[in-house]
Amino acid sequence: MRTLRQIMLVEDNLNDIDLTLAALEELHLANEIVVVRDGAEALDYLYCRGKFAGRTDGLPAVVLLDIKMPKVSGLEVLRQMKSDPALNNLPVVMLTSSREEPDLAASYALGANAYVVKPVDFQQFVDAVRQIGVFWAVVNEPPPRNTGN
Amino acid sequence: MLILLLTSAVVMLLMRASFFTYEYLTFRRETVRQLSAMGEIIATNSTAALAFDNRDDAGEILGALKANRHIVAAALYDSNGRFFAGYPANRPPAPFPAAPGGEGFHFEQSSLSGFQPVIQGERRLGTLYLQLDTGIVMREWLWVSLQIALALMAVIVGVAYLLSRSLQKQVSQPILALAETARAISERKDYSVRAVKSGSDEVGRLTDAFNQMLGEIQTLNRDLERRVAERTAQLETANIELNRSRAVFESLFESLPGLFLVLKPDFEIVTASDAYLKATMTTRDDVIGSKLFDLFPDHPEATDASGSSNLRTSLERVLATGTTDNMAIHKYAIRRPDGVFEERYWSTVNSPLLGVDRRVEYLIHRVEDVTDFVRQKPFTSGEPAELRIKMEQMEAEIFQSSQKIEASNLQLRSANAELEAFSYSVSHDLRAPLRHIDGFAGLLEKSDGKQLSERGRGHLAHISDSAKQMGALIDDLLVFSRMGRSEMNLGPVNLQQIAEETIQTLKKQELAERSVNWKLGSLPVVRGDRPMLRQVFVNLLSNAVKYSRPRDPAEIEVGVVDETDEWIIFVRDNGVGFEMQYAQKLFGVFQRLHRAEEFEGTGIGLANVRRIITRHGGRTWAESVLGQGATFYFSMPRNREIKS
């Protein structure tokens, strides 16, 4: 039996969280959606430390990662994830406002699995989130669970 | 000497002490013997008195003891042991022993006393008692003994003193002389001096050893001196050689045809070549040791003689980086010894001379005087002086402008960096609130849309549209900004292919229900940035499609006007056109000649086209007759490298 893994949203902006959750709601996904508010929290969650110490629900199916965040940026989270053998096959979708080339280049260089620019148009945004959700949480077959986590 | 005296005194005292003990014992024995002898004499003399019981005679005999003042008491006892006579005569008998004791004398506290039998033949007639006061005897004896001791001591100390004096002459003097010699040698460093030997005893042997050591030192010293002299000679030779080669190099350096200065890091002039001195009309004595900028200050009046400050900048750059710095041809106002400034054109290279620690020890300032070259190049002989002066002025102006351009370049670079940061921030932070506005407007519409009035829903739609419109503006602006900033990747670009692809895309996107007649001429392959040139075609062709919307069929033609120096490419449509008086406005940012309700758009497309074409070294312009269509042109340089 396939257990449902969480969808992890790393986003500092409350409005964006509301809108993304609203968009995901429309999908009626059964997956739990975990929201963390910056890069440091994201790493704490993934490594089950800090306030997430003792967490036993494993790694998420996909990480939706904002780039511009306080403390630890999305690019830094991505770098740490992709340089850790325990996390490097966890799919990461960069979900950001920026279409700037340096962000794109850096994200792909660090091994991002996808890069989605949040459209200003809400309907387009809903579509984009829906596609991400459907693809990564439903269509895509995730890598086998790491025994270490 | 003091030691000698003390030693003899101590020895004497010890000797005296033992001698005294011996004398004391002898004295006691002698006293007993004397007393015993005296007792025998008195006993013998007393026989008659005792025999005849004549006490008077006995008293007289005993009274004779007065001659010996040491005898304090004497007594005679008859054969029955009864007191017979006493001495002193007036002394009462009580203190005498009541009856005679055993024969022999004994020391008591301060006296010696005892009994002596009085015998005649075989018959014992009585007993004699004698008491001697030893205290007096002892005192006398001690007094004599002390006198002897003192006298002896005086004699011995005197003798010891005399002896030590003569000994000092024999032993101490040679040692002192030796010490003096050693001191003199160490002061004068004269190892040829020898100590005089005064005998063959220990001191003599010491002197021998000392002299032997001196001999060895002298040998070593001589060897050392010889080696020092050799080394000094070598050094002198090397020094002479060094000076000679230094002189050769100096004169070599000085006679170099180029203009050279060697400076210390504080710009003090170390040396200069003859050519430099000649060119600057100075002498070597004038310049060496002077500070460069004291010697060659800026011309007080000249506005274009800013060369020195640039020279300073250049030299400081060399000091900071430790690498050679080439300066552009500069005009310098050189002050001649008579104080008059003369203008010279110099091409300058400043190089560092690095020390072992990689720090700049000297600066080599090499100058090529190109004044003649600069002045004569544009002229042939017989040029009017006026024209020549004018040319010089122009050159100075050009030089000034080039400096200004350099400065603005620097400003531009920093402005560009700021723009980069700005547009990054815009991209992240400015789009977000718009997204939120549209997002929440959408959510509101979805959740409560039915409760809103028709008018309310219209407002919500306007909020949404405005947010989207602003989002589009920001996106376009970012693209426009990127077009101006991003690096150009130059390569051959087939414009024909790009045009075809763009037309295909447009057809798919929005032309399903439109009827457009496309006419595509043959376009060249140019050198440029492919994505940028694609953007040009997308913008121009979509504009043509957009503004020909009222036409059916629309006609759009893409073609080229071949010219010698550049390609001129055009996009022509039969659309609404524009009034020519606004033609220049078209290519500005956010400039529109139509209302948004008529034709959508942000007004940035043509600005992008102009920016891209300008960066490719080309030009853009447009022609139109209102209501009859418009033609947009751009040029691309051909057979020429494009500056990026």
Topology:
The complex is a heterodimer of chains A (149) and B (644).
Chain A: E1 7-10, H1 14-25, E2 33-36, H2 39-46, E3 62-65, H3 74-82, E4 92-96, H4 101-110, E5 114-117, H5 122-139
Chain B: H1 2-51, H2 55-63, E1 71-78, E2 83-87, E3 104-108, E4 111-120, E5 123-133, H3 134-170, H4 172-188, H5 202-254, E6 259-263, E7 269-272, H6 274-280, H7 284-287, H8 292-295, H9 307-321, E8 325-326, E9 330-335, E10 341-354, E11 360-369, H10 371-376, H11 385-448, H12 454-485, E12 490-494, H13 495-510, E13 516-520, E14 525-529, H14 530-547, E15 554-562, E16 566-573, H15 605-615, E17 620-625, E18 629-637
Parallel strand pairs in B: 13-15
Antiparallel strand pairs in B: 1-2, 1-5, 3-4, 4-5, 6-7, 6-11, 8-10, 9-10, 10-11, 12-14, 15-16, 16-18, 17-18
Helix pairs in contact in B: 1-2, 1-3, 11-12, 12-15, 13-14, 14-15
Key features of this structure:
heterodimer, A: 149 residues, alpha/beta, Rossmann fold, 5-stranded parallel β-sheet, 5 helices, 5 strands, 14% strand, B: 644 residues, alpha+beta, Beta-Lactamase, 4 domains, 6-stranded antiparallel β-sheet, 5-stranded antiparallel β-sheet, 18 strands, 53% helix
Tell me the major beta sheet of chain B. 6 strands, antiparallel
Q: How many strand units of chain A?
A: 5
What fold name goes in the CATH topology slot of the largest domain in chain B?
A: Beta-Lactamase
Low-confidence stretches of chain B: 299-306
Look at the structure and give the mean pLDDT of chain A. Answer: 87
Record the strand order, biggest sheet of chain A: 2-1-3-4-5
- List SSEs of chain A in N-to-C order: EHEHEHEHEH
Total strand segments of chain B: 18
Mean pLDDT of chain B: 82
Q: What is the CATH level 1 assignment of the largest domain in chain B? A: Alpha Beta
Please state roughly what percent of the residues of chain A sit in beta strands, choosing from under 5%, 5-15%, 15-25%, 25-35%, 35-45% or over 45%. Answer: 5-15%
Overall body shape of chain A: globular
Continuous helix count of chain B: 15
Radius of gyration of chain B: 71 Å
Number of domains of chain B: 4
What is the name of the CATH architecture of chain A? 3-Layer(aba) Sandwich
Oligomer: heterodimer
